[in-house]
């Protein structure tokens, strides 16, 4: 199984969506857990491409190709992850990718896993302005807002979002969770967030704990 995970990881890094789809289908047929596929192949691949982008070893076209390959794989797994649900309603979460950023693979994975865990998810999509977050908080009354950024250039928008939420006097109404390839745990104080998710599994765990349903 580990060998197949590695082949899928490499296919995504290389941006080969045909191979990524083929290997994902093979893993599913062999009864691999969809969450394990994400943890051991898709997430590491996206992290690797994100790191290479930051160091200049990869470029935007590489990022786009890897994102599409990851999307193909995720599209196969998402229905299976949702079917793994059945949990009682836990709470409501708003998700969105910050303004100026259109990379949503990680967000989509988190969304699927949150739904499977029992959360209602309001997905604002990509390139979400601070005002859109504010408007959605007023309308949906969530317990958690999850905002992500894929690059360090767009990560600065997380701090601006926190400031906008404070100014609009809605910050105390929610817990702010941040994540994405362009964000690190040490950024929590700088961006004024309450919690950080390094990957989809941790993001779901954090949301559970913030809702008093902590997972050990």
Task: Describe the protein.
It is a single chain. With 216 residues, the protein is α/β, with parallel strands linked by helices. The chain folds into 2 domains: 2-83, Orthogonal Bundle (Methyltransferase, Methionine Synthase (B12-binding Domains), Chain A, domain 1); 91-210, 3-Layer(aba) Sandwich (Rossmann fold). Helix content is 58%, strand content 12%. The chain has 9 helices and 5 strands, in the order ααααβαβαβαβαβα. The protein has helices at residues 2-13, 17-29, 34-55, 60-83, 105-117, 130-140, 152-167, 188-191, 200-210, and strands at 91-97, 119-123, 144-148, 175-179, 195-197. The chain has a 5-stranded parallel sheet, sandwiched between helices. Helix 1 (2-13) runs parallel beside helix 3 (34-55), helix 3 packs antiparallel against helix 4 and helix 6 (130-140) crosses helix 7. The chain is globular and about 50 Å long.
Question: What labels describe this entry?
Answer:
216 residues; alpha/beta; Methyltransferase, Methionine Synthase (B12-binding Domains), Chain A, domain 1; Rossmann fold; 2 domains; five-stranded parallel sheet; 9 helices; 58% helix
* Percent strand: 5-15%
What is the CATH topology classification name of the largest domain? Answer: Rossmann fold
Fraction of helical residues: 55-70%
Q: State the fourth-level CATH superfamily of the largest domain.
A: Cobalamin-binding domain
Global shape: globular
Would you tell me the structural class of the helices and strands? alpha/beta
Main sheet: strand order: 2-1-3-4-5
Task: Give the total of beta strands.
Answer: 5
Number of domains: 2
Report the mean per-residue pLDDT as an integer.
92
Write the H/E string, N to C.
HHHHEHEHEHEHEH
Enumerate the spans where pLDDT stays under 50 for 5 or more consecutive residues: none
Query: Rg to the nearest angstrom?
Result: 17 Å
DSSP summary: helix tally: 9
- Label the CATH architecture of the largest domain: 3-Layer(aba) Sandwich
Euclidean distance between termini CA atoms: 26 Å
Describe the main β-sheet briefly: 5 strands, parallel
CATH class of the largest domain: Alpha Beta
């Amino acid at each position: 199984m580990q060998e197949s995970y590695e082949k899928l990881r490499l296919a995504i890094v290389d941006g080969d969506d045909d191979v990524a789809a083929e290997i994902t289908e093979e893993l599913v047929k062999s009864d691999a857990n969809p969450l394990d596929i994400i943890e051991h192949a898709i997430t590491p691949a996206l992290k690797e491409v994100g790191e290479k982008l930051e160091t200049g070893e990869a470029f935007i076209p590489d990022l786009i190709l890897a994102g599409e390959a990851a999307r193909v794989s995720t599209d196969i797994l998402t229905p299976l992850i949702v079917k793994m649900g059945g949990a009682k309603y836990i709470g409501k979460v708003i998700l969105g990718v910050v303004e100026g950023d259109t990379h949503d693979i990680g967000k989509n994975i988190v969304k699927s896993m949150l739904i499977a865990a029992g959360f209602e998810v309001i997905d604002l999509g990509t390139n979400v302005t601070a005002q859109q977050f504010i408007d959605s908080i007023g309308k949906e009354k969530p317990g958690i807002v999850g905002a992500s950024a894929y690059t360090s250039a767009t990560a600065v928008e997380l701090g601006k979002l926190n400031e906008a939420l404070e100014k609009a006097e809605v910050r105390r109404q929610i817990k702010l969770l941040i994540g994405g390839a362009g964000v690190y745990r040490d950024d929590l104080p700088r961006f004024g967030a309450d919690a950080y998710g390094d990957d989809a599994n941790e993001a779901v765990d954090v949301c559970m704990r913030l809702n008093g349903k902590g997972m050990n």
